[in-house]
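FAQ

Q: What does a record look like?
A: Structure on top, sequence underneath. For example:
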């Protein structure tokens, strides 16, 4: 009998706010322990919470980004449980009346469960709650840091539509891209801004009844989720095939050992004694409030990539770069719109492709990758000079090789114009046929073997000879004229 996995994910995301959910304490990572706290987030007697308006807006914004319905009534409940890092001994959360419901995430995926190269996972809800503190365990004691307690936390619950470890990984990355593009969260995994609980069961293929649900708690990396599922799914199938019974339980992922360990069994759902929080009014968003939030909706990453491929005829790999780096993609579009006015057809397509190649293969992207953890953003990309350089390439003032290896790096370093760099470094392309013919004659004489190979039909030998001419001309010779000249001289 063949078995299949049924997977649902609960993704917890810290929202991008300056202050905590119920008080004015800073929502700031890296502060000294227990410095961003007050009586409200410490849950002291008699305090009253005040909802963070921006957190409410970001939650509804997420609903729009995830194609959700936005109910006209939502409320906060108390979820009662004891943990040493939960200062109130209950969590303020949304239970039966969340701020968003019934959405979906669509993403590129070609594995099992995909349709026409895309996967789709339904979203049950994205609801707002508060984070807890952080426990640190020492040799004989444990410490609690409440700086994180009360930070706005959004829980995004998926339907059990995920069928494999790879599909879970791609869904999580797509979800992260949407939240970052929309300005909802920085989604910095190293700072604990995204955490995930995995619910997985197995059942015979073709059946509808779900198997015993196994929960893997507090995953802090997407690769960890994938590895945990790659271990857990075969483990469960092996148990069932041995004739043993799986019991609903909670497990933890041991990243070093690459296994899941049972933490506790869970025969019945825990009674959290939910009830509406008496200190918080229900949420009843007005048309004007919803319209203001909806105005913040941005183009979804997948739609952006598809548009770049459609409008600019870019290959998927180039469009992926401009999808991932929003500022760079915006600069690319701005430059193309300014410089390509009046340019149509093949000439416009070639200009766009040249600009994209210059940007994507530049050292700028490497610098951005290396400095992505720094607070200061990378300096703006010199898009106007890059497009100007692409025009000079099309006009045969220089060639793509020299532009990529010498001219653009100098522009990035000094801020000088392309024309100034070409003049100062004597990089103007040689298009004089007499000079190029001389270079070709020297290369043919110095490389009789490759020349003979081309004459005998080995077309690839011509590329070697072209490279030698470029080397001899110090990268200045017109590549198109080189090819024409060599072919004419070596034609049988």
């Amino acid at each position: 009998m063949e078995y299949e996995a049924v997977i649902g994910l609960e993704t917890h995301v810290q929202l991008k706010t300056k202050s905590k959910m119920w008080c004015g304490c800073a929502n700031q990572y890296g502060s000294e322990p227990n410095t961003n706290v007050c009586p409200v987030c410490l849950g002291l007697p008699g305090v009253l919470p005040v909802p963070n308006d921006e957190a409410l807006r970001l939650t509804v914004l997420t609903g729009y980004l995830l194609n959700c319905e936005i109910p006209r009534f939502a409320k906060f409940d108390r979820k009662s449980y004891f943990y040493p890092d939960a200062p109130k001994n209950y969590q303020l959360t949304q239970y039966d009346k969340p701020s968003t419901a019934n959405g979906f995430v669509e993403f590129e995926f070609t594995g099992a469960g995909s349709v026409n190269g895309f996967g789709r996972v339904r979203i049950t809800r994205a609801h707002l709650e508060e984070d807890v503190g952080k426990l640190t365990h020492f040799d004989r004691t444990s410490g609690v840091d409440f700086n994180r307690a009360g930070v706005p936390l959004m829980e995004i619950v998926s339907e059990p539509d995920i069928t494999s470890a790879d599909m879970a990984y791609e869904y999580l990355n797509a979800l992260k891209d949407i939240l970052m593009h929309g300005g909802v969260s920085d989604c910095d995994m190293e700072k604990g801004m995204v955490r995930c609980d995995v619910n997985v069961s197995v059942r015979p293929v073709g059946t509808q009844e779900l198997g015993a649900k196994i929960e893997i708690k507090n995953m802090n990396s997407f690769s960890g989720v994938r590895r945990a599922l790659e271990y857990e799914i075969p483990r469960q199938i092996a148990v069932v095939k041995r004739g043993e019974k799986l019991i609903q339980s909670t497990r933890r992922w041991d990243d070093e050992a690459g296994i899941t360990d049972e933490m506790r069994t869970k025969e019945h759902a825990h009674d959290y004694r939910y009830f509406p929080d008496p200190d918080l009014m229900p949420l009843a968003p007005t048309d004007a409030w919803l319209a203001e939030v909806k105005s913040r909706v941005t183009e979804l990453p997948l739609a952006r990539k598809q548009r770049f491929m459609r409008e600019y005829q870019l290959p998927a790999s180039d469009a992926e770069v401009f999808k991932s780096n929003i500022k760079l993609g915006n600069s690319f579009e701005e430059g193309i719109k300014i410089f390509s006015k009046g340019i149509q057809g093949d000439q416009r397509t070639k200009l766009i492709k040249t600009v994209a190649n210059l940007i994507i293969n530049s050292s700028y992207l490497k610098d951005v990758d290396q400095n992505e953890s720094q607070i200061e953003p990378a300096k703006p990309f010199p898009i106007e000079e890059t497009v100007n350089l692409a025009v000079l390439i099309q006009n045969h003032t220089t060639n793509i090789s020299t532009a990529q290896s010498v001219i653009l790096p100098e522009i990035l370093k000094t801020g000088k114009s392309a024309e100034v760099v070409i003049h100062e470094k004597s990089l103007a392309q040689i298009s004089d046929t007499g000079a190029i013919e001389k270079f070709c004659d020297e290369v043919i004489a110095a490389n009789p073997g490759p020349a003979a190979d081309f004459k005998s039909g080995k077309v690839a030998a011509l590329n070697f000879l072209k490279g030698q001419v470029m080397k001899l001309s110090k990268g200045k010779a017109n590549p198109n004229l080189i090819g024409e000249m060599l072919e004419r001289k070596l034609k049988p």
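Q: Is there anything notable about this one?
A: The chain has three domains: 3-293, 301-424, 433-490.
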